[in-house]
Every structure is written in structure tokens, then in C-alpha cells.
Amino acid sequence: MDPVDAQAKAKAALSELLSEVKNGKTPIAIERIVNDIDKNVRLARFPGWQNTRAREREVQKALRKVVYVKYKIKNQDLFDKAYGYIVQYY
């Protein structure tokens, strides 16, 4: 798959996922969150990262840093789904 295509699909999947959990109490700037996730995950991963336990933890840590710490979204289901998309598309 073309890297540009993969990046676009990853961002679209994450945007859709975040749109599902958005509500009136927690207005979310989805594009900004997706871009932050994308940036942090790209720094933490390399081709074949899914096959190394240490790198899996680094990617999860990068995702957690954005979702839990920066944006204060405490939703384990969202985190798990986002990580699943990252495994699939990155």
C-alpha cells in the first residue's frame, strides 16, 4: 500500500472513531487530536514494529500520551480501538 494512502486511511479511521465518542460535555477538536496521534506514533514506530514487544509498548505509550495525558480522554475502549487502527494502518 502506498504510504500516503495508508496515512490518509489511518487518519480517516481515527477521525471516525473520535467522532463517535464526541459529545456536548467534551467538545473535541478531532483533526488536532488525530494529527497529534499521527505525529507521535510515526516517531515511535518503524517497519515491522508490530513484531517487537518493546516497540509495541512505545507506540502504546505515544498514543496514551496524546489521548489520556494531553486531551484527558479517559476511555479504554477508545484507546483500544485507536491502537487497533494504528496496528492496522501504521
From TrEMBL:
This is Uncharacterized protein. It comes from Desulfosarcina widdelii. It comes from the Bacteria.
